[in-house]
Structures are given as C-alpha cells and as structure tokens.
Amino acid sequence: FIMAKQVEQLEKEKKELQERLKNQEKKIDYFERAKRLEEIPLIKTAYEEQRVHDMELWEQQEEERITTLQLEREKALEHKNRLSRMLEDRDLFEARLKASRRTVYEDKLKQFQERLAEERRNRLEERKKQRKEERRTTYYREKEEEEQRLREEQLLK
C-alpha cells in the first residue's frame, strides 16, 4: 500500500512538473512573440536608417570616384599636350634610327648575297669536276671492259 502511494505521489509530482514546464514554455513563447512584435518596427526603422546611410555613403564615394577620374583625365591631357611638342623630335629620331638600321641590314644582305653567289659558284665548279671525273672513270672502265671482252673473244677463237 505504501509503495502504491509512493508511486502515485511520484506520478502526481511528475504531472505537476510537466504542467509547470508547459506553463513556463507558454509564458516564454508569449514573451518571445511580444518581444518580436515590439522589435519588428525597430528593426524596420534601423534597416531604413542603414539603407539611407549606405546610399549616402555610396553617393559620396561615387562623387569622389568621378572627381578623381576627372583629375586623372586632366593630368593625362596635360601630359599629352606636353609630349605632343616632342612629336617631331621623336619622328626625326625614329627616321634616323630606321635609316641606320636599314643601311646595316642592306650591308648584311649584300654580304650574304655575295657569299651565297660564291658558294653556288664553288658548288657548281665542284659538281662540274665531279661529273668530269665520273665520265672519265666511266670511259676508262668501259674501254677496259671492251678490251677485256675483245681479249676473251680472241682467246675463244
């Protein structure tokens, strides 16, 4: 009987504990919901303020970017105008440089053409000698073969 009472008491305490937890959970839920309902307008206003601030910052940075680009363009134009005075000197220097390089190129080309012509003459002369020597050896060989054939014919007779 005492055991049954103890079990019953434990179950009753367990139910009370669960009910208290449920009530506490509901209170927390209501509290969180109320907190969120109060926070939503604050979050929206904070978002709007941040958006306005960001927009102002972007516009400021964009203006700075545009002014720096304008300054860079002005400097580039000044630089171009300053360098355009040197354009004739540059062209003259370029022309002289090209002329000197052209003469060097033409000299080297002339030397190459001369060496090429000399090499061709040498090779032609060498080929001529070689062919002459081949014809000579062929002639003597054929002559010798003819003599050999004639001797053999004589021997056979």
Automatic annotation (TrEMBL):
Keywords: Coiled coil
Stretches for region Disordered: 123-157
BP GO terms, sorted: formation of cytoplasmic translation initiation complex; translation reinitiation
Residue stretches in coiled coil: 3-34
Database matches in InterPro entries: EIF3A (IPR027512)
A GO MF label: mRNA binding
Name this protein carries in UniProt: EIF3A factor
UniProt gene name: Eif3a
Lineage of producing organism: Eukaryota, Metazoa, Chordata, Craniata, Vertebrata
Cellular component GO terms held in the UniProt record: eukaryotic translation initiation factor 3 complex, eIF3e; eukaryotic translation initiation factor 3 complex, eIF3m; multi-eIF complex
